[in-house]
Amino acid sequence: MKDERNANAESKNKQLDTYRSHDKGQKMTTNQGLKVSEDEFSLKAGERGPTLMEDFHFREKMTHFDHERIPERVVHARGYAAHGEFEVYESMKKYTKAKFLQEPGEKTPVFVRFSTVVGSRGSGELARDVRGFATKFYTEEGNYDLVGNNMPVFFIQDAIKFPDLIHAVKPEPHNEIPQAATAHDTFWDFVANNQESAHMIMWAMSDRAIPRSFRMMEGFGVNTFRFINENGEAFFVKFHWKPVLGVHSVVWDEAQKLNGKNPDFHRQDLYESIDRGDYPEFELGVQIIGEEDEFMFDFDILDPTKIWPEEDVPVKIIGKMTLNRNVDNVFAETEQVAFHPGNVVPGIDFTNDPLLQGRLFSYTDTQLIRLGGPNFHELPINRPVCPFHNNQRDGYARQTINVGQVSYHNNSLAGNTPAAASEDEGGYKHYQEKIDGRKIQARSDSFKDHFSQAVLFWNSMSEPEKEHIINAFSFELGMCKEKNVRQQVVDMLSNVDLDLAQTTAKNVGVRPPAESLAPKVNKSSPALSQEKTVKKPDTRKIAVLVGEGFNENVPVILKALKKVGAQPVTVGEKQGFIKGQNGAELEVEQTFATGDSVLFDSAYIVGGEKTSHQFFESAAYFIKEAFAHYKPIGASYQGKQLLEELNLPSNAGVITGDASGGFLEEFTKAVAEHRFWNRKTL
Fold this sequence. Notes:
The protein is α/β, with parallel strands linked by helices and about 675 residues long. It has helices at about 1-5, 10-15, 55-65, 160-170, 185-195, 200-205, 250-260, 265-275, 330-335, 355-370, 450-460, 465-480, 485-495, 500-510, 555-565, 615-630, 640-645, 665-675; strands at about 80-90, 105-115, 130-140, 140-150, 220, 225-230, 235-245, 280-290, 315-325, 350, 540-545, 565-570, 575-580, 585-590, 590, 600-605, 635, 655. Strands 1, 2, 3, 4, 5, 6, 7, 8, 9 and 10 form a 10-stranded antiparallel beta sheet that branches. Belongs to the catalase family. HPII subfamily.
């Protein structure tokens, strides 16, 4: 049985094979299969005459081109995706009857789409923004979609406010400026006048909003769901994705430059990592609360602007997802994939989280307009691995050829089939939660505390992280033209931390609040800080600045760096092969023009005996920028002289030495550390 289930991990690939078109070496045809004899000239009435309506190939080709673009997503338009598999560590039978979570070792094919929220499809990927993290599990019971973000909370508590939030955060309608940015008046006016966003805005101004890569950010289901076991017992659950490489970010100046140097930085990183076999891995964790404990916390567990602190409700790691295959076609897969939090399987159900309740309506409605009708589930990327049968018929882009005369229920002509399945047969049954209340448009008083967890978040940050948050608020509010908007937000921040509010006020030219209005919250949650995250040298890109006459030991050092999982990339004045001592040879992969320091995690300069003055000038700029971004710096041989001229060797995270004497070990540790916040920048 287990082998049969694991075969599902391959069945999705085989299903997609049916739709793959390998055009190389083939003769051209129309979409009906008719071979085409001419694709350079349209059919005309004479060589200089008008084109004829009769030219069916021209009309088919042009019509298809005219309709190649589907409406982009209103939010999460800028995305990239990959295929993979999810493997269970331990059975969750105690909590849920979902079959894909029952057997340790069982594998389920998945498709994951990462995205930014605010920008259009053409925007840069390093915007300060929330990141989408949506996973489609192709289970034997149907598709299950875990549609989340890289932040565990959201701006609003009730989905009815979602259009308002997005209208406020999108480019302002009178001039459509700025693109993919929250640094403008309408967004911050929304924040100041909808203070339920206070907790989320702390996350959005933190380093979490500018991740190093998709591979190095957490994912969260955000909403509160239910697990249901075979006995009908229910448990509240929140979902977490934990990156095996840890949670890492870039600095703001680096992010801005990356958007100019390589606006595709995140997608390229994901694509190349999978392509070379460094498969991104995320462990799935769950927080579980029994129904009897629903009201034992000082927050409402259904409030989407609240976390369940991991110190109070531990995250139980139950499996691992590995992304091991890139998409074959971005449009057919990444753009046409349709996620929906309502795509669940038996054993997973909903709660009365008011944001989740609205999402259950919104996603289907969105897919109908984006993908042209009700048959988007039949697109190859959206098709389940299990068969599906119902009485739905026709509509745009219908692919199923339904056989027979019956398309209704109840019926006698087809033996009343397709028939509903009992719960024992795998039929989905909604949890029978008791509901007793009046029809009302209101919000529970338990949702009205907007600041306690914002204070908790602030308390949990390290000093460098707090400094980054202050800088982020100062930049964002500094871009607002209306002084009154800046003042309102600063006044709101006095409900979080007085120093945060006062420092930001001074930076943006408004009146600092005189007193703290923050609730008394003495606790912190270390899990919220990136300070103690996993730190490895694995997949870290190291720019190796090398020139003519390099030391013969340099290739040995590069080999050693690769052995510990790092990715050294040679950077020099010109691409091509250069010669070193004793006949050694290296290929320069990037130049100073194409391999900017912001594209790397670390810099390592070795130089060479025959390098030009221009080489050292370019290397000096490269090193100073990497140093200013707090990155690890290494130097050997002629490179040590450059660092001495720049007065860098005594700084934190600057490692000098040659092939011997422990240099490699120390430099590798520095690369794993990611950043050195305690150094004094130039």
